[in-house]
Amino acid sequence: MASLFLLFLLVVPFAALLLLLLLAAVVRPRRVRIPIKGRHVLITGGSSGIGLALARRAATEGARVSILARNPARLEEARDTIRLATGVDAAVLAADVRDPTAVARALEEAGPVDVLVCNQGVFVPQELETQELEEVRFMVEVNLMGSFHLIKAALPAMKARARETGLPASIALVSSQAGQVGVYGYTAYSASKFGLRGLAEALQHEVIADNIHVSLIFPPDTETPGFAEEHKRRPELTHMIAGSSGGMKPDDVAEKALKGIKSGTFIIPCNFEGIMLSIATAGLSPQRSYLTAFVEVLGAGFMRLLGLCFQWNWFNTIEKWHAKKSNK
Ligand SMILES: NC(=O)C1=CN([C@@H]2O[C@H](COP(=O)(O)OP(=O)(O)OC[C@H]3O[C@@H](n4cnc5c(N)ncnc54)[C@H](OP(=O)(O)O)[C@@H]3O)[C@@H](O)[C@H]2O)C=CC1
Ligand SMILES: CCCCCCCCCCCCCCCC(=O)[C@@H](N)CO
């Protein structure tokens, strides 16, 4: 009995070590460091919330920053905020990401980009049955099609620049935890954000040979001006389910996002629940870290179980909510 236990004590660490070695050999793409200092970082939706926090951070770290959004007055305000906080003068670009010609013009004006952050986003939560199709289209066009327009406009010059400088470049997309799991009231929003994942996975295959690295950022509820607006009209159930993940401040999301972008991380979670969610939804996404891969491989079964428990809880919440409503 004792010797069996001893054998077990030897075999388990050995098997773990073997798995780690195997993962270290297979994880792709290879590790990378993407410098920010002195490079051109373009952030869409950079006039508010997460985008503004990111612009400030990038400027603090010595990047040349451009911000893009629709409203010129808000862009100017953001430029002042960034200058006041960092002493850096950001370039401002007024364009609607839904308009490919305007996006191409803005990117031409901005010049070659090293790090493109597609952070623009709109969110209007409502049950699909009552939501106007116009609003559905609005979310898909800004969040998903807008990102296509940006990437297509930026890519040729980005490639050329990466080739010339020999430095790795980055395309980062801001999704949402509602882009990892579908949430009540977010049919259109979740669809637009899940869409970014397909775009990112396929794009990484396409641009890896050009030394361009794709990142997907998955924030939870974050205290931004956009969120304050959303909050006013969010269905009660959306609120209850989204509450499963703790809220964050824009600057903390920006910190996690920038750290992830600089290390070329494909999936960037922002809080503890986000880490759990990312392990549970690892799927077939690229993974450069053999340690994270190790956790994903060993955690897969347990995380599926945990995910099912979360779903059990959410469906319970929905059931009770309907029961309460029909009792009134
Ligand atoms: N806050 C949250 O709880 C969470 C947010 N996210 C995501 O993070 C991103 C940023 O969100 P947040 O900071 O809260 O958003 P805000 O609403 O605070 O800011 C949105 C930014 O996007 C710009 N924008 C909106 N529509 C367009 C457009 N059509 N063309 C160009 N720019 C546009 C806005 O400027 P203007 O209106 O002038 O165009 C603004 O700068 C979004 O993609 C969002 O989905 C993800 C998870 C949680
Ligand atoms: C297996 C382990 C599971 C771990 C916990 C899962 C928690 C999921 C919560 C989903 C929250 C969705 C927030 C969307 C925020 C957002 O995008 C809006 N504010 C609009 O911007």
UniProtKB/TrEMBL annotation:
Pathway field: Lipid metabolism; sphingolipid metabolism; Sphingolipid metabolism
Keyword field contains Coiled coil: no
Protein name: 3-dehydrosphinganine reductase
PANTHER family attached to this UniProt entry: 3-KETODIHYDROSPHINGOSINE REDUCTASE
One biological process term in Gene Ontology: 3-keto-sphinganine metabolic process
Catalytic activity: sphinganine + NADP(+) = 3-oxosphinganine + NADPH + H(+)
Annotated family: Belongs to the short-chain dehydrogenases/reductases (SDR) family.
Coiled-coil boundaries: none
SUPFAM superfamilies xrefs: NAD(P)-binding Rossmann-fold domains
A single cellular component GO annotation: endoplasmic reticulum membrane
EC number of this enzyme: 1.1.1.102
Keyword terms of this UniProt record: Endoplasmic reticulum, Lipid metabolism, NADP, Nucleotide-binding, Oxidoreductase, Sphingolipid metabolism
Gene3D superfamilies named in the record: NAD(P)-binding Rossmann-like Domain (3.40.50.720)
First-tier enzyme category under EC: oxidoreductase
GO MF entries: 3-dehydrosphinganine reductase activity; nucleotide binding
Species in which this protein is naturally found: Elaeis guineensis var. tenera (Oil palm)
Compartment(s) where it occurs, according to its Swiss-Prot or TrEMBL record: Endoplasmic reticulum
